[in-house]
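U., I forgot to send this yesterday:
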Amino acid sequence: MKHFLLILALVGCYGCGWSQPPVDSSILGSKIQTATPAASAEKERLEANRQLWEQKGANSYTLILELDSTSPIPPPSAVRVEVENDSILSVSPLSKSEESHAVTLYDSFSTVDRMFAFIADMLDDREEKGKLTVVYNAALGYPEKIEYFSIASDGSVSLTVRSLSAR
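Result:
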């Protein structure tokens, strides 16, 4: 009976955490980040495609972008973005009937560099920010499709690069 009570007490103490190693109090309150294999692979894909884009040297181009969003202000269905030496010259809706003030919803994606920055930011805190899926162009490396679902706001964004014409 004594052995049974001793085993019961030890199992109870183990369940309470007495057997766990002590925690270094210097790390309490700090965020410990560990990269999951999937996150590391996604970051490697991002960097490989960013390098491919930079190697191709396309810093002047025209993009046709489509954005689908759960934003309360619907974005224009598609915009034309003119980029010269990595600077935005213009962003305009393809349809003349759509309001041009809503093109600001494309700001995070209006250049290839901004798309890469958006992807990198989402990958940094993937667990907190949401689910991200990216398809890259095999020849030039730019993101052809970015799909993002926010866990916190239950919102989503889907960006498609309909075309990219380098000048």
